[in-house]
Amino acid sequence: MADGHDNSAFMTSGGIEARELAPGFEVRGYLSTELGSPGLNSGSATVAPDGGLPYHTHPTGELIICVSGQADVFVVGRKYRLNAFDAIHVPDGVAHGLKNDSGQPAIMHTVFPTGTPEREFFDDGWEVVDRTSTDESVPESLVVHGEAQAVSLGELAEVSSLTDPNDPDRDVAARVVRLSPGGELDLPAENYDQSLFLAAGSAVCEVGDERFEMASFCDTVCVRAGQAKRLRNDGDETAAVMISEAR
Q: In principle, which of 43, 64, 137, 205 could form an S-S bond with 212, CB 3.0–4.6 Å?
């Protein structure tokens, strides 16, 4: 694990201790200022049936990705049902909350363009309206995974976006890389730190001479700006890695 003065890549285990942010809503942080990532926060929330998070705002945007299960995200009364690998970006200052009414636990992946996200809670006062899509009339941006185009990168790898490139308020971006068994993918160096979050299977992340075994669900590797990396799947099932960064 890194500290704030170390500029090398590092991995945080998915088994990190959870804390309850609200009833039935447990969060785990994998990248943060405290863990050596002052410009990017990456975490997960396990939402029990009937659990959720009340309406709140942040001074930055937030990307919320459903990893498994199902949950509803509310944005000033607009209700979006998120299934696995669906994602919604909520800009700074826009009130939003989350609820799991599915009867099964849900796991959400959250990304902020700051290492120390802040939130302010308050009571809701909006009439609920069900929505299945977003457009330019609302500040939030929904990406439904089943409607996102997957781009093949060789025979054993594909990538699909989890954020809308046309969203003018997007301050984080994310995509999911799927690697079939035996697949590998070279990824170029970027101008910003990145979070590589294991959403399914297992993978190896190589950064220079460093090798990180992503074997546990939610294992997260922080790759620094200017570092190229390679993902490889040595397992016997498809691996899914969510890659996100602040923009």
A: 205
Phi, psi of 92 (to 5 degrees): -60, 140
pLDDT in the model for residue 124: 83
pLDDT tens column, 45-72: 999 999 999 999 999 999 999 999 999 9
Q: Report the pLDDT averaged over residues 191-209.
A: 97
- Which of 145, 171, 194 terminates a domain? The answer is 145
Residue 164, amino acid: D
For residue 149, pLDDT beyond 90? no
Residue at a domain's end among 102, 125, 145 = 145
Residues 242/65, Cβ–Cβ less than 8 Å? yes
Half-sphere exposure of 218 (CA within 13 A, CB side): 24
Q: Are residues 168 and 126 in the same domain?
A: no
What is the residue-averaged pLDDT of the chain? 94
Location of structure tokens 């160096």? 189
Same-domain pairing of 133 and 75: yes
Measure the CA–CA gap between 89 and 45, rounded to whole angstroms: 16
Residue 61 and residue 119 in contact, taking contact as beta carbons nearer than 8 Å = no
Asked whether the predicted pLDDT for residue 91 surpasses 50, the reply is: yes
